[in-house]
Specification:
InterPro entries: ADP-ribosyl_cyclase. By secondary structure, the protein is an alpha/beta fold. It is about 40% helix and about 10% strand.
Length: about 250
């Protein structure tokens, strides 16, 4: 039996063992936790387990063992080649400045799809990941503090692919209360609209979310820019105002 005097010593030893053994393994576990979250979200999408395992392996090839700035949009080429979109390409829903509303809308209306409704978009929403030259680990802190970085490069690449895939009649949900609902420099402007395909898309409709319908907000200058870009692509453009309830939308 341990004497009362020896107890503080064994207490100190226990603390040392916890510090020495548990801290490094917790650090290494960042990779395990990331993989576990990826797999859970992928299987829950739902997608079968083997496909999820293979997709995770291809995904990791894009950034593991590389410094953050070495991961560009091109780094994800193989991932997107091997993980083609499966959702119906019509009724694609883009958004800009309206994330919450557009996400809620496509969740309720399962015949509309935004990028977060695709397998990779669903799995990687809310996640961060990066690697380091010479390391096999995935890190999840401070991954997006440089340009380019693995997280931004992924979202830019998926946006390009998502826009190229859109067909038939597609939509963009915009904030009709802003001065410029179609805002220069957004991902919508730089990576999505330029990649809409003339031979795939019939129409592109701007849904302007407004506090109160006035019938005038579609005339805003920035929407004329959008309309002209689509005209140049020979894609029919339409615009309509809807209030936040979106009951009058479709
Ligand atoms: N996590 C994701 O799901 C994700 C990530 C990146 C890109 N995307 C794709 O890109 C599009 C969204 O990205 P985005 O950059 O266009 O929009 P965003 O809503 O992410 O906006 C980007 C920035 O511009 C500002 N902004 C947006 N519209 C504005 C306006 N009218 N006036 C003033 N400021 C405005 C926002 O506040 C934000 O700071 C979607 O169509 C989506 O398909 C999705």
């Amino acid at each position: 039996m341990a004497s009362k005097k020896s107890l503080p010593i064994s207490g100190t030893l226990t603390v040392m063992v916890i510090v020495v053994v548990l801290v490094p393994s917790a650090m290494l576990d960042e990779t395990a936790v990331f993989r576990d979250t990826f797999m859970k979200k992928c299987v829950g999408y739902p997608e079968d387990k083997n496909t999820c395992k293979a997709t995770l392996a291809i995904f990791e090839e894009a950034y593991v063992g590389k410094d953050k700035t070495a991961v560009t949009e091109e780094s994800y080429n193989t991932l997107f080649d091997k993980t083609p979109f499966k959702h119906p390409c019509g009724k694609t829903m883009f958004w800009s400045g309206t994330y919450e509303l557009a996400s809620r809308f496509t969740q309720k209306r399962d015949n509309f799809y935004n990028v977060g409704d695709t397998l990779l978009g669903h799995v990687l929403t809310g996640m961060a990941w990066c690697g380091k030259a010479g390391s096999k680990e995935t890190f999840t802190d401070n991954c997006a503090d440089v340009f380019p970085n693995p997280v931004l490069s992924f979202w830019l690449k998926i946006s390009v692919k998502f826009a190229q895939y859109a067909c038939d009649d597609s939509y963009v949900m915009l904030d009709g209360e802003k001065d410029q609902p179609y805002y220069t420099g957004t991902v919508l402007d730089t990576h999505e609209v330029p990649n809409l395909q003339t031979n795939r898309l019939k129409s592109f409709t701007a849904i302007l979310v407004v506090n109160k319908e006035t019938g005038t907000k579609c005339n805003k200058e920035s929407l004329k820019n959008l309309s002209n870009i689509l005209k140049g692509k020979k894609i029919n453009y339409a615009c309509k105002e809807v209030t936040r309830s979106i009951k009058n939308c479709f």
